[in-house]
Amino acid sequence: MFQATSFVRRKQSAEFVAKMVFLAMTVAMVVPLLLIVGYLFREAWPILSVDFLLTNPRNGLRAGGLWSPFLGTLYLVGISLAVATPIGVLAAVFLNEYARDNWITRVVNLAVVNLAGVPSIVHALFGLGAFVLFAGLGKSVAAASLTLAIMTLPVIIASTKEALASVPLAFREACWNVGASRWQTIRHVVLPNSVSGILTGVILQVSRAAGETAPIMFTGAVMFKAIQEGDLFAYGLFDQCMALSMHLFVITTSVPDVPKALPYGIAVVLLATVLLVNALSIVVRIRLRSRRKW
Amino acid sequence: MQHRRGWEVAVEKGIEALIRTCGISAIVFVFGIFFFVFREGSGFLFSRFNPLEFFGSIEWYPTSQSRVRYGVLALIAGTASVTALAMAIAVPFGVGAAIFISEFSGPRAKETLKVVIELLAAIPSVVWGFIALSVMNPLIMSVFNVPIGLNVLNGGIVLALMSVPIIVSIGEDALKAVPDSYREAALALGVTRWQLVYRVLLPAAKNGLLAAALLGVGRAVGETMAVLMATGHSVKIPTSVMDSVRTLTATIASELGEAPVHSDHYQVLFIIGILLFTITFVVNLTADLVVRGIRSR
Amino acid sequence: MNNHRNDAYRSRFVPLACAALGLAFAVGLLACSRGPRQPEKTVIQNTGSDTMVNLAQAWAEEYAKVDPTVSVEVSGGGSGTGIAALIEGTIEIANCSRRFEPSEIEQARKLRGKEPREFLVGYDALAVYVSMSNPIQEITLDQLAQIYGEGGTITKWSQLGVKMPDGADEIIRVSRQSNSGSYAYFREAILGKGRDFNLGSRDLHGSKDVVELVSKTPQAIGYSGMGYAIPDVRMLRVAKKAGDTYVSPTVEATLSRAYPIARELFLYTLGEPTGAAKKYMDWVHSPAGQAIVAKSGYVPIPAGGSTPR
Fold first, then answer.
1. Is the distance from CB of A252 to CB of B229 less than 8 angstroms?
2. Residue B263 within a domain
């Protein structure tokens, strides 16, 4: 009795077509990504090894490994996140917990959104004008890290804000009901429950800080600097440093006669670091979310 | 009642002051960026700057020994052409993917796809530039039988792949934000999912989707390293997608290191930086106003 | 009730852990900025010509073995940047593929009260590259000017009498970005001082980029240092004008000035170099340093030695 009429059949075939079209569009983006990553890995395979990470570049950057740029990237990422995280978390706390719904809050929100959209080369110009020249830091790890910190700040603020907002109001109300002050509430209840969201935001920015070239190119990264292999404290705060992203750029554009696999190897190391860190953030997010009590 | 010790209250007041300072730090930094970039370029801006030549001439000869000319029209055309092509690819595909993820996929598929899109977003721009040089260049040369594969097409495809994640994630947010009552009403009338999307969701979410597209534009305009390596870096107004062009961002990146500090050339590059900052500021402001429009509903 | 204890424990543990981590990190930072792990290293900053950057890097790498207490930091940026940084005082040694302009010497005198000291360290021939599938073998400076210069008339290979396979006739000009020393030298030596490049060339970022692109593009022509040659490209023989002998860019031709577009490579310091910088400069002029010049594809100073100006 309830047989599908031709009208219904037409509707359903239209839906099927639509579904296939959208699926094709999604696949059209995912497939090139997988193909490209696969190609990079295949081309880089001959040169990848543990040695590759632990030895310095040799012979005019044509041989050897990635120790000095890798260490430089670690420094830059570490320092920039150490600076950006406290400021970002506290700024998000302000926006979510303390701010009233007035024009100042709107302006701050607007500023965060705009800071997120600033082109990386403008960050580079800012870093050059403010940290290298005005603050007198010169081209150094310090100036480059501070530039990266400003760059990663908005996403940390945004993801922390989201994490704080996801803590139910009931938790806060319970604290206020027993007489806790606002800061006590935040410190003992709200922040500990937002750790997963904050960590996710910070970990995501690790990949951004490690991958950007333009902001560090003019504020502290150099093409070459001789340091000792395996030395973890090789770069001082006011020295210049090498970095993985800069290294890839330099090898691709300025160094002749490199073995074919070398730039692929650098790209793969950079990509693998970034993807691993992102995978870590996803795992952290899932695990901490399962521990939630609401 | 337990009174709190004096120093505890003082510490708490101090922490609150710190929090407020951090809160307004974002404004400070945005203004700081504009201020410092403006400061480095202001000398030239207020003395010898000729807006007619700057915006109207394609002749970019900053280091000429005979006749120095600072015309950025070709550079603006370069940025515009690559961005336009990138958006023409990224917006339909991005919105299509957002619709698929939001409406047509089960929870498992949704999680996986979202993870994949996140990974796409995480690829550093210099790696994209390297891909453009080593993979896309020979590919374009062989598929389209052109002499050189570093052109608007190469830059456009790479930029599209870079901007898609932002369009997908914000587009998906926009679709999720459509009130459930709309969906329930439509389903009560017996629509298929496609009809739901086409007749209800898209019109309802169009503000959010527009914002997503605008943020994608902002991303594309501001991208530096990938276009530096992908577009062939040639000063001319493109007449086809197979032409090489140069973008504003790539010009700054490739010439800043070599411009003597505080020289005219250096200051003009900072002025281009101001131009870029203004463009992305306007785009982001528009996107934010559009999004605010849907939130307040 | 157990949950309650966990919460209290966690809420005290997390900030304490963060503080401890932060403290450890700060201590680590302070430690590394004072560098107790290694003896104090002297740093020599060396910036400038992109053409010379690989050479400078090879020197720095080799010198680190010769004297491990000195660390030479190398970056490119172009001769102009090196000169400006030297005048500002942020570097000790500038690499230049061109001489100081009189205005720059004036600036150095005014700002720092010192004269720039010029040290010749080698020669570089500017080679004209074409792809291996291009049959052309030689070219004159005038033809190059007509190809690259503003208002130039040569746009197709057939105008040079070259028959390209596949009839692909358009000349694809590959150049450098506008403040590269190679760009400036090409403009001065070939286009002449009053003339500029024609717009629409592919202005690539590095000396190696040019050669790479030319090797992959049959219709392309490009210029770069002769040290950047790879097997897939051909360096054209060059003559000053039609009727002169066409000369290949080789070490001998550069030294004898038979190859018309060769330039000198300099290291500049402000005033006389002292201490670690002087030892480095001396090493660069020694046979060990000059051997690296040759290995990098440039032309070392002939054995008679050079007199610094």
1. yes
2. yes
Domains along chain A with CATH numbers: 70-291 (1.10.3720.10)
Cβ-contact B288, A158 below 8 angstroms: no
Instruction: Tell which B residues from 98 to 157 touch A, by Cβ distance under 8 Å.
Output: 99-101, 104, 113, 115-120, 122-127, 129-131, 133-135
Please indicate whether, in this complex, the C-beta atoms of A256 and C58 are within 8 angstroms of each other: no
Tens-place pLDDT, residues A130-150: 888 888 887 888 999 999 999
Domain with B150 in it: what CATH number?
Answer: 1.10.3720.10
Interface contact C83, partner B, CB < 8 A: yes
Between CA A157 and CA A116 the distance in angstroms is: 10
Which chain C residues are closer than 8 Å to A139 by Cβ?
90
Q: Which residues of C touch B129 (CB under 8 A)?
A: none
Nearest residue in chain B measured CA to CA from A269: B127
- Rounded mean pLDDT, A197-204: 83
Q: Using CA atoms, how far apart are residues B222 and A81, in angstroms rounded to an integer?
A: 22
Residue C146's contacts (CB-CB under 8 Å, 6 or more residues apart) are C152, C153, C154
Does B56 reside within a domain? no
Q: What are phi and psi of B201, to 5 degrees?
A: -70, -50
pLDDT digits (tens, 9 = 90+) for B37-59: 888 888 888 887 888 888 888 88
Q: What is the ipTM of this complex?
A: 0.84
Structure-model confidence comparison of residues A105 and A227, the more confident one: A105
Residues B121 and B21 in one domain: no
The backbone torsions φ and ψ at residue C164, rounded to the nearest 5 degrees and listed phi first, read -85, 140
Contact C43 A238 (CB under 8 A): no
Q: List subunits contacting chain B, requiring 3 or more Cβ pairs under 8 Å.
A: A, C
Q: Is C209 in the A-facing interface, judged by CB distances under 8 Å?
A: yes
My answer on whether B272 and B229 are in the same domain is yes
The answer to whether residue B59 sits within a structural domain is: no
**B133 lies in which domain range?**
72-296
Residue B58 inside a domain? The answer is no
B171 and B282 share one domain: yes
Q: Are residues B26 and B91 in the same domain?
A: no
- Measured between CA atoms, the residue of chain C closest to residue A237 is C33
Are B140 and B157 contacting, i.e. CB atoms less than 8 angstroms apart? no
Tally of structural domains, chain B: 2
